[in-house]
Write a structure and sequence with these properties.
The protein is α/β, with parallel strands linked by helices. It contains 5 helices and 6 strands, in the order βαβαβαβαββα. The protein has one domain: Rossmann fold. The protein starts with 15 loop residues before the first strand and ends with a helix. The chain binds 5-nitro-6-ribityl-amino-2,4(1H,3H)-pyrimidinedione.
Length: about 160
């Protein structure tokens, strides 16, 4: 019979760091609400969650790397909103956040969930943070829970 290995959607016994950007906080606050909802619904107590606030999405990679180096968390959830209309350096901020976080996860072995919205408009960001199109903070936290559970199994 095939052996299927997959993560469980349970936060039991897991510790999470949520790194949340202050830039566009009217959106990232909503992502944080979604992420906390996912963690609590899957059984996480407040003591299992650390919230780390950073200025903007550019600061995600250095922060996630420092958090991973502490080896205190089973997964890191990054929540930000990069909105094209705000700045001509949209591509730099969004691109560096994405590639930097992928590198941190691959190099440290700590799963990093990418809950960073990259949208053309404020309306799209609102839609993806609890309005029409779900809440990407919730989704990112669910991914973090599954990956933390999966990696724990793969390491034992
Ligand atoms: N940071 C974001 O998280 N979202 C943005 O849309 C954004 N824009 O548009 O500039 C943004 N900029 C700030 C950046 O992340 C850094 O905090 C800043 O450049 C200082 O390093």
């Amino acid at each position: 019979m095939m052996n299927v290995i997959e993560g469980q959607l349970s936060s039991a016994g897991l510790r999470f760091a949520i790194v949340v950007a202050r830039f566009n906080s009217f959106i990232t606050d909503r992502l944080l609400t979604g992420a906390l909802d996912a963690l609590k619904r899957t059984g996480a107590a407040e003591e299992q969650i650390d919230i780390i606030r950073i200025p903007g999405s550019w600061e995600f990679p250095i922060t996630a790397r420092a958090v991973a180096a502490q080896k205190r968390h089973d997964a890191i959830i990054c929540l930000g909103a990069v909105i094209r209309g705000d700045t001509p350096h949209f591509e730099f901020v969004a691109g560096e956040a994405a590639s930097g976080l992928a590198r941190v996860a691959a190099e440290t072995g700590v799963p990093v969930a990418f809950g960073v919205l990259t949208t053309n408009t404020v309306e799209q960001a609102v839609d993806r943070s609890g309005a029409k199109s779900g809440n990407k903070g919730f989704d990112a936290a669910m991914t973090a829970i599954e990956m933390a559970s999966l990696l724990r199994q793969l390491k034992t």
